[in-house]
Amino acid sequence: MNFLIVGPGAMGCLFAGHLKRAGHQAVILDYREDRAKFINGNGISLEGVGGDFKVRVNAVTGKPSGKFDVALICVKAYQTDEVSRILASWLDPDVVVLTLQNGLGNLEVLRNSFGDGRVLGGVTAEGATLLGPGHVRHAGRGPTIIGPAGPDHGPAANIVSAFSDAGFDIRMVDGVENLIWGKLIVNVGINALTAITRLKNGRLPNIEGTHQVMKEAIGEAVRVSDAAGINLPYPEPVERVEEVCVGTADNIASMLQDVLAQRATEIGFINGAIVREGRRLGIPTPVNFTLSSLVEALQDSYQDTVSL
To answer: Which of 165, 220, 249, 307 has the least C-beta neighbours within 10 A?
Structure first.
């Protein structure tokens, strides 16, 4: 299959590298010419649980040439609206758009641009850390689930086949909204806490203070999801988040990677999404409001931090 990977971050490079190594075509779309030039000259370097290897992958900064079967959206949630408008004017009408992004709202934005029939959603528990341009540590393995499933030889089935070729644990389901909420609650329990404390995932359940805040944030998110009519894909949300922390113990969460690099974060689409939905549904969310406010304060003060 021919994939257009939109975004050269940790997940984009992880998927592009493994798909290309498995014999599929993968082109990375970037907005920075210097980074695209670096990837074109040096390829993608992967290390970690998926193996250590380097593979050549083409990167472009403008409208890509060639025929694509799938556009895999790997940008930050706050970039989805702009990216969807650009891609809608570039892509052929038969190209399927797949999002595996964090946060709430990406699926709806893409459906507004491309229509329900062309958009697939999904979640992934793969953990990856960006070490530099095109250089990724594969820090943890986990399942990837996409949907709606559609026909046996339809787009979702073809994507599952390609990702399986590349060594990923992947399956398809009929609906993904509940799964997206399930992944959202995992991120609610992990990302903001890592960004504030600068701890790796595996340490969060082992420190009393972070563990307690984690449980409170998850509890608020579950009450909001219940009020929204969501059926979470696991019975015990706190236990699920703890399992993810253990499974990705050495991973530097994406929000912490953003803070360390002094970039904008996805806080407004994760903990902030719980706050907004809570207000809409009349559910108090003071812990998620506090976590959101603290991460936003970090973003707003990158140039003001004190070092000894």
So the answer is: 307
